[in-house]
Design a protein that fits this description.
Radius of gyration: 15 Å
Structural class: alpha/beta
Distance between the termini: 33 Å
Helix content: 10-25%
Order of helices and strands: EHEEEEHEEE
Number of strands: 8
Strand order of the largest sheet: 1-4-3-2
CATH class of the largest domain: Alpha Beta
CATH architecture of the largest domain: Roll
CATH topology of the largest domain: 2,3-Dihydroxybiphenyl 1,2-Dioxygenase, domain 1
Low-confidence stretches: none
Shape: globular
Strand content: 25-35%
């Protein structure tokens, strides 16, 4: 393969608090680089999030989002509550209420899902 995964880049009008939120989600620290961007590395995967400054705020539903899963199905509710306490909000992207996942948004409005668990 000629390519490998490097970053998932998230554009932010104010990257520091969004990176801090995601660092708290994963239980790690956010780090600033020399370009003023913020980096969060999930400890259990190769995914690295890069939060970069853009002048405009988010205005429409994301075309790409993260799906996160707790280690067991009975932890979904507790994880949703933990993330809401960290600053996430519930997001409506047209779900019916019958889904096994919960849609949330980070402090910048970027949607992500908490799946029902690995079960």
């Amino acid at each position: 393969m000629a390519l490998s995964w490097k970053w998932l880049v998230v554009d932010c009008a104010d990257p520091a608090p969004v990176a801090s939120f995601w660092a708290d989600v994963f239980g790690v620290s956010a780090e600033s680089d020399q370009d003023g961007e913020w980096i969060v590395v999930s400890p259990d995967s190769s995914v690295k999030l890069l939060f970069g400054l853009v002048p405009e705020a988010k205005t429409v539903k994301n075309r790409l989002h993260l799906d996160l899963t707790p280690s067991s199905p009975d932890e979904q509710r507790a994880e949703v509550e933990r993330l809401l306490a960290l600053g996430a909000t519930r997001a409506d992207v047209g779900q019916t209420g019958e889904e096994s996942w919960v849609v949330l948004a980070d402090p910048a409005g970027n949607e992500f899902c908490i799946l029902s668990g690995k079960g």
